[in-house]
Design brief:
By secondary structure, the chain is an alpha/beta fold. Helix content is 43%, strand content 11%. It folds into two domains: 253 residues, no CATH class; 389 residues, Kinesin (3-Layer(aba) Sandwich). Strands 1, 3, 6, 7, 8, 9, 10, 11, 12, 13, 15 and 17 form a twelve-stranded mixed sheet that branches. A three-stranded antiparallel sheet has the order 2-4-5, covered by helices on one side. A hairpin with a 2-residue loop joins β8 and β9. The N terminus and C terminus are likely disordered. The structure holds adenosine-5'-triphosphate (ATP). The site of adenosine-5'-triphosphate (ATP) has 15 residues, from α14. It comes from Camelus bactrianus.
Length: 844
């Protein structure tokens, strides 16, 4: 571009400083002058149209040069690019065009015929130039041709042939290899080139004509005209220069295109592109490999999924089948349950009906009994007794209430949420032990704040039934420290069941008639039997007398046991103080001693005599005492019982009945064991000891001191409840044989008895296990059936002494009285069982 005369300032600013007349200059330096066509020459700023023409013709081969073809060129044709040649042609033409315009003949461009050929040629050249610089042109024109191919001269004037065209010869070489589009482009450019050359030729001719005309004008017009002509040419020159400047600007604006890019750079760019392409191909290949691996993995996963689906389906089917089977089983079970439920409903309704019948019957009997009670009054009761057995209200009521009644008394203390109760008749105790809730229904539940009197009131009818010939046994049991002794004996200021029972009995006996009472009180303490009674009292004489029979010598059943082990008090428990008048280590006090066991207010202490004595007393002032032991509460098997035998003379038969009271405290399995740890084994050993002959012999000695009815009951409770949840105990059968020498071995059976059994329980959480055991035991005791209680009459023959406690048991063997439909209790010794002996008559 530097070699191309493209700087308008150079052209326009040149003027004609040295040339003077441009036309002349043009002529002198015109086609006639020989000009060397060197493309690299820098054009002078004062170049005129003639010089331009010279240069242009030099470029195309200087046909008008005198040197002939290639003239002016010393070493061959000038090396100029096609582009440069075109630019120069454009310059020249634009100068010419500007001259014509400035001459005053502006062409009418709207008419095609008036368009100056210069303008057409210029436009075509510019179009060619633009095409060459376009990408297509660059492709069509080989690089060497554009940049440096020499313009082969000479071109034959007016007949430029395609083959001879210097600019086309290199292109022709590549013709066979170029695509058709390229060939077509090349052909078009060749045509254009020929056209341009033709127009150039035409322009030359016009120029010659004009020069001729100018010469003629010069000759004819003179200097003035010449001057005008000079001015005109000057202006034309200026216009041409401006046109050239514009053309140059246009060419510069197009600027060097990508053609100027060096092949080296192209190669580098190509290499870079190839490198990138390779890289991209590598990446693609890696991705393909990865894709293949993932596809394989995917296939594996699909297979596993399919297998899993199949397995799941099979499992589901299997489980469904199992569930169907289970459902069918459940349905069948439900159907059978429904049927059972229907049966049960029938049973319940039958039971309800029978209960209602029994209840209405019982109500009638109660109302009858109450009516009889209110009609009879206190005075008439014993009149009835004189006439015959005391079959009055207490006995009848007792019959209605049942033979065995289990009462429950809660010891006062910290209330526990684990033990709740519904007090009253038919009350319940609910325990929550080790996560299991259990409800026990008992005949009566006394709340902790129940008084001694309230408890006794519930038992009084049973006690009084003794006077009517009903044998009664009251015994308490329960865990140590729960208030058995308190309930049975009680403190002097608030006596318990035993003193109140005696008081009530004596009061009743005091209403009239003669009564023969034998009272004994024993305590078995560590296998030694001790008597706790030292004084007898009789009923007031105004109502007859009460004969108290007292032992005068050590009873034959006394076993000389080893000395009492003095166990230390259990932790947290106070030693039980000896009571006044107690004789811990010795034998009962003789009658008349200063420490009476039963005190009559009108009896003079010390005046009692051994044997049968009659004492007057006020029943209200009776007190009851028993020798106590400081250590009796701690690990030493102890049982206390009070036996009252009553024989009422007169009537068709004398009534003989027995009242026994027992406190089964410390009925632990073995001596020396802590009572608190005995727990449920207390009850088991209690039942075992009372129920079997062998067990009784080998069992805890204190068991043998139990009231015999209590022993029977416990033996029956040990067996499993049978029909209707009841166990059966033979009232008359005594499990203990004579050889055992126990207290009961000396007794004769008195027949079925009433047995109220107060069960003592604690509400303390730490005692909950024992409480549950006691309640379970109470429940089973409540299910024992002793057979119907019957009053007994004393035998008409026989002696009183034969009924004393000293009398060895030689009576008729008893047989159990099973409840209807119940087999004999296996817990009882069938060998020793015998029928109940007929009522024995006391001698009159
Ligand atoms: N209902 C009650 N009201 C007031 N105090 C009571 C009651 N029950 C028990 N007690 C008191 O609880 C303590 C223990 O009672 P008690 O000696 O009668 O129990 P126990 O069952 O006979 O014990 P053990 O089996 O060791 O002889 C006593 O101090 C007693 O006064």
């Amino acid at each position: 571009a530097a070699a191309v005369p493209g700087n308008p300032s150079q052209v326009s600013g040149g003027g004609r400083s040295s040339a003077g007349d441009p036309l002349l200059e043009n002529r002198s330096a015109g086609p006639q002058s020989s000009t060397r066509c060197k493309p690299g020459d820098r054009r002078r700023s004062d170049q005129t149209t003639g010089e331009l023409w010279t240069e242009l013709t030099g470029l195309v081969g200087c046909p008008e040069s005198e040197d002939g073809p290639g003239g002016g060129a010393e070493g061959g044709p000038a090396e100029v690019s096609l582009e440069e040649a075109l630019v120069r042609v454009a310059e020249f033409l634009s100068v010419q065009l500007g001259a014509e315009e400035s001459f005053g003949n502006p062409p009418d461009l709207s008419k095609p015929g008036d368009v100056p050929p210069l303008l057409t040629v210029t436009g075509q050249l510019l179009a060619l130039l633009a095409w060459i610089r376009s990408p297509r042109g660059r492709q069509a024109v080989p690089q060497g041709t554009q940049a440096s191919s020499g313009v082969q001269s000479p071109i034959p004037a007016g007949t430029p042939s395609q083959d001879e065209s210097p600019s086309l010869s290199p292109r022709g070489e590549a013709q066979g290899q170029q695509p058709p589009q390229l060939e077509e482009n090349q052909r078009a450019s060749q045509r254009l080139e020929q056209l341009i050359l033709g127009q150039l030729e035409e322009l030359k001719q016009q120029l010659e004509l004009q020069e001729k005309e100018l010469g003629q004008l010069r000759l004819g017009v003179g200097a003035t005209d010449s001057e005008k002509r000079v001015q005109y040419l000057t202006l034309e020159n200026k216009a041409l220069k401006q046109s050239l400047s514009l053309t140059r600007d246009l060419l510069l604006h197009c600027g060097p295109g990508p053609l100027s890019r060096a092949p080296q750079e192209e190669a580098e760019a190509l290499a870079e592109l190839q490198g990138r392409l390779q890289e991209a191909q590598d990446t693609t290949e890696a991705l393909r490999v990865q894709l293949g691996a993932q596809e394989m993995q995917l296939q594996g996963l699909r297979g596993a999924l399919q297998q899993l689906q199949q397995e799941t389906e099979q499992n589901c089917r299997r489980e469904l089948q199992q569930m169907h089977g289970q459902l069918a089983g459940l349905r069948a079970r439900m159907a059978s349950l429904r049927q059972g439920c229907g049966d049960l409903r029938g049973l319940v309704s039958t039971f309800t009906q029978s209960c209602q019948g029994s209840l209405s019957e019982a109500r009638g009997q109660v109302s009858w009994a109450l009516g009889a009670l209110s009609a009879g009054g206190a005075g008439t009761k014993f009149q009835e007794a004189k006439q015959g057995p005391l079959a009055g209200c207490p006995g009848r009521l007792l019959e209605l209430k049942g033979n065995i009644r289990v009462l429950c008394r809660l010891r006062p203390g910290t209330p526990s949420s684990l033990v709740s109760l519904e007090p009253g008749p038919g009350g319940t105790v609910t325990t929550c032990y080790r996560g299991h809730q259990r409800r026990f229904r008992l005949d009566w539940v006394f709340p902790p704040h129940a008084s001694q009197e309230e408890v006794f009131r519930e038992l009084e009818s049973a006690v009084l039934s003794c006077l009517g010939g009903y044998s009664v046994c009251i015994f308490t049991y329960g865990q140590t420290g729960t208030g058995k002794t308190y309930s049975m004996e009680g403190p002097p200021e608030d006596p318990g069941i035993a003193p109140r029972a005696l008081q009530s009995l004596f009061r009743e006996m005091g209403t009239g008639g003669q009564h023969h009472v034998t009272l004994s009180m024993v305590e078995i303490y560590n296998e030694a039997v001790r008597s706790g009674l030292s004084l007898a009292a009789s009923a007031p004489p105004s109502f007859g007398s009460t004969l108290l029979e007292l032992p005068t010598k050590p009873p034959p059943f006394h076993t000389q046991g080893p000395p009492s082990p003095r166990a230390s008090p259990a932790p947290g428990r106070e030693a039980r103080p000896s009571r006044p008048g107690g004789n811990p280590g010795g034998w009962p006090h003789p009658l008349g001693s200063a420490q009476p066991g039963v005190v009559a207010s009108d009896a003079e202490p010390g005046k009692g005599q051994p044997g049968h004595r009659r004492h007057r007393h006020e029943p209200a002032q009776l007190s009851f005492a028993c020798p106590g032991h400081a250590d009796s509460a701690h690990g030493v098997p102890t049982a206390r019982s009070c036996h009252l035998r009553h024989v009422a003379p007169g009537g068709p038969g004398r009534i003989r009945a027995c009242l026994e009271g027992g406190d089964s405290r410390h009925l632990v399995g073995r001596p020396g064991r802590r009572p608190t740890s005995a727990g449920s084994s207390d009850h088991q050993s209690l039942a075992a000891g009372a129920g079997r002959r062998d067990d009784c012999a080998a069992g805890p000695p204190a068991t043998r001191a139990l009231p015999r009815f209590a022993a029977h009951t416990l033996a029956a409770a040990r067996t499993r409840p049978r029909r209707h949840g009841s166990a059966v105990a033979a009232g008359g059968a005594h499990p203990a044989g004579p050889r055992e020498g126990g207290l009961h071995a000396r007794r004769r059976p008195f027949g079925p008895a009433h047995q109220p059994a107060p069960s003592q329980i604690s509400t303390r959480p730490e005692d909950l296990g024992e409480t549950v055991c006691s309640l379970k035991f109470a429940e089973r005791v409540g299910q024992v059936e002793l057979g119907p209680a019957r009053p007994r009459r004393a035998p008409r023959s026989g002696t009183l002494s034969s009924l004393s406690t000293d009398t060895p048991l030689t009576g008729t063997p008893c047989t159990p009285t099973p409840s209807p439909g119940s087999p004999p209790s296996p817990g009882l010794d069938s060998g020793s069982s015998s029928a109940l002996s007929p009522p024995e008559e006391l001698p009159s």
